[in-house]
């Protein structure tokens, strides 16, 4: 599903250059649930942004579902991004003046789906994350865990090949984090490929594989014995 080879990325600020990714190689097969760990500044978000086609590497190759991602023009890149990728963020990134249902329906709106079909589909995804009864509530009426569930439903709505999550439990308490991870595990059990950036060891151990970054390189890439999230609660 994902293959990256010898990926490099530097940031330049004035005369200083910071070499953040120094030759990353890894691949992710369809259906994997992978966490990317590493200390602050090790390049996790930089890597996730490149995988998410939100940023480009300076060197190296990235192939997503058989498509080489390099030098695509903005329009094509946006089409691939919408087709292949769903995003989940630490701070949920919901639209505050839209209901849970309308937030989930946003990607469908941009696909040009008519209102009736969009509403039915968005409702089905809200049901999937256990929030059908909250469809008409606004984000400020929802708990953190509920907001992240809405964000997950929104990410799923366009049926992406891969879900990319940047610290999805970073703003949640422990119990809620495990509940969100249980939901993510369930989505992965249905076959979705998922990559998660996390600082938290217990969260990483709820994935199936942990990739550890240090100083711009992968220093460890290990399969995890799957632990069901709720067994931690
Ligand atoms: N747009 C940018 N311009 C300049 N430097 C940047 C930029 N984005 C990130 N950096 C620097 O690159 C390094 C890696 O950042 P990155 O956000 O990828 O790390 P991270 O492992 O995700 O860290 P954290 O866990 O703190 O989020 C850091 O030193 C950061 O300051």
Automatic annotation (TrEMBL):
Keywords on record: ATP-binding, Nucleotide-binding, Translocase, Transport
Coiled coil: none
SMART domains associated with the record: AAA
UniProt cross-references to InterPro entries, sorted A to Z: AAA+_ATPase (IPR003593), ABC_transporter-like_ATP-bd (IPR003439), ABC_transporter-like_CS (IPR017871), MacB-like_ATP-bd (IPR017911), P-loop_NTPase (IPR027417)
GO cellular component: membrane protein complex
Residue stretches making up the ABC transporter domain: 2-233
UniProt xrefs under CDD domains: ABC_MJ0796_LolCDE_FtsE (cd03255)
GO molecular function, one term: ATP hydrolysis activity
Superkingdom assignment: Bacteria
Signal sequence, renumbered to the chain: none
Protein family per UniProt: Belongs to the ABC transporter superfamily. Macrolide exporter (TC 3.A.1.122) family.
Protein name: Putative ABC transport system ATP-binding protein
Organism encoding this protein: Leeuwenhoekiella aestuarii
């Amino acid at each position: 599903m994902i293959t990256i080879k010898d990926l490099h990325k530097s940031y330049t600020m004035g005369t200083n250059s910071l070499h953040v990714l120094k030759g990353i190689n890894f691949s992710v097969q369809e259906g994997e649930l992978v966490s990317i760990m590493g200390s602050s500044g090790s390049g996790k978000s930089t890597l996730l942004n490149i995988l998410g086609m939100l940023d480009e590497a300076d060197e190296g190759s990235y192939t997503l579902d058989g498509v080489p991602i390099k030098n695509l023009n903005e329009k094509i890149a946006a089409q691939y991004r919408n087709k292949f990728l769903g995003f989940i963020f630490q701070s949920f990134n919901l639209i505050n003046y839209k209901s849970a249902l309308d937030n989930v329906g946003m990607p469908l709106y941009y696909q040009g789906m008519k209102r009736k079909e969009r509403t039915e589909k968005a409702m089905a995804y809200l049901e999937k994350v256990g929030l059908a009864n909250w469809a008409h509530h606004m984000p400020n009426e929802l708990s953190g865990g509920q907001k992240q569930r809405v964000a997950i439903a929104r990410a799923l709505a366009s049926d992406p090949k891969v879900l990319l999550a940047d610290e999805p439990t970073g703003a949640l308490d422990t119990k809620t984090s495990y509940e969100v991870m249980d939901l993510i595990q369930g989505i992965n059990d249905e076959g979705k490929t998922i990559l998660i950036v996390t600082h938290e060891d217990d969260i990483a151990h709820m994935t199936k594989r942990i990739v550890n970054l240090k100083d711009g390189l992968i220093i460890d890439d290990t399969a995890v014995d799957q632990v069901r999230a709720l067994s931690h609660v």
